[in-house]
Amino acid sequence: MCSDAVISVEGVSKHYPVYDRPHHRLLEVLSGGRLRYGREFAALEGVSFSVAAGETVGIIGRNGSGKSTLLQMVCGTLSPTSGSIRIKGSVAALLELGAGFNPEFSGMENIRLNAAILGLSQAQVNERLDRILAFADIGDFVHQPVKTYSSGMFVRLAFAVVAHVDADVLVIDEALSVGDAFFTQKCMRFLRGFRDQGGTLLFVSHDSGAVVGLCDRAIWLDKGRLRAEGSAKAVTEQYLHSKYAGEDDAVGAMPAAVSADEPVAAEEAALVVGGGALAIPDEGAGQAFGAGGATLTRVTLQDEGGRPILVTEGGERAVLRIEARLGEALEQPIFGFYVKDRLGQVVFGENTAGHPDQIVRTGMPGETLATEFRFRMPHLQAGDYVITAAVGEGDQDAHRIHHWIHDALAFRSQSVVLHGLLALPTAVRMCRVEPVDA
Ligand SMILES: Nc1ncnc2c1ncn2[C@@H]1O[C@H](COP(=O)(O)OP(=O)(O)OP(=O)(O)O)[C@@H](O)[C@H]1O
């Protein structure tokens, strides 16, 4: 464990007794503990990690993997069965909905109560109240008891308080999944600001895009055990690989069905062979997956003259061609791709599911199918990009992925983008609407 760690979790386990029948618990109590009806269930087992000051760490894992249990122990609302947790500095937490708020009190009363618990004096609360109310933006509901709140209003209020106390460590559990898109953006802006000012953040989310966008590191919990720890990008990819390829029989979202929970790039792209060139994979761990009924054999990004696009200024006409050899008959083959930035964030993508007039309806074993996507290269912020390619069968909603390569190709953008991730060719004109009389 590092000595400068703000959060040190050492060999932490949490065990619960579980009973096959509800009355078994009662029988055990009545026997004074002499008879055992329950068995031990390990919600967490031997978890160790540390978080240094100023780090942002995401915790990912399937439902029931122990994420909330871990956060509750970090916040001290639950104690471990064994192991130890040490925290340096003050912690403000946003755990599951309802925690810390009195349902009978109004929003305003809960603001004061919570802010006081989190260390603010009444004078500090008064001074920050307008900002807290503006952040929560729930209007007159702030005077109603919080038991009347929707989950969205509740999380707005809870987040607003947490955002205005002076905590060294913030612990946030799935809060962003409840709010609407604008509120989520507001929270992300706040969390980025908190991180940039040196705050330490422990962040649970099912949205791997948010984890990659916000966190330096990630920890993957699997059935209560720490399965992987490393850069947010690499760990998230391993997690998604296991989720889509293994346990879910390779059913996932095809590229371009952009949801919040999409794959992100691998840390090192073994399949990248210089951009614009083809990539023929030996299935490398974490780089590719799929049910295997078809194999991607060639992925190229070229200009209209057939020259590989290794570097783009933006605006060039491009042809992204994906070829796959079929090992079995496919009904409704689908091809798709994503372009992702260096953080693994999907910038754009497309697949053939939305183009039913352009697809080959049935593919036969031994055949090779090719799909060409033609578009103008966008003006992307300067940097390195990778292309994920996939082949599957079915439609956008129900499909089976046969082969998916996270980082099939790489290219570099040297566009000058002043604002945001990309620039659109934009016509600009300024005029006077009301000329001033001379
Ligand atoms: N009080 C309890 N008694 C028995 N089992 C419990 C108790 N609390 C949690 N568990 C079990 O511990 C495991 C881990 O739960 P936890 O809520 O930490 O998972 P999670 O990763 O946060 O899940 P989710 O993503 O669904 O929120 C689950 O199997 C859960 O059923």
From TrEMBL:
The keyword Transport applies. CDD domains: ABC_KpsT_Wzt, Wzt_C-like. PROSITE patterns: ABC_TRANSPORTER_1, ABC_TRANSPORTER_2. Keywords: ATP-binding, Cell membrane, Membrane, Nucleotide-binding, Transport. Pfam families: ABC_tran, Wzt_C. Residues 24-248 form the ABC transporter domain. GO terms for cellular component: membrane. InterPro entries: AAA+_ATPase, ABC_transporter-like_ATP-bd, ABC_transporter-like_CS, ABC_transpr_TagH-like, Bact_Polysacc_Export_ATP-bd, P-loop_NTPase, Wzt_C. Belongs to the ABC transporter superfamily. This is ABC transporter ATP-binding protein. It comes from Chitinimonas arctica.
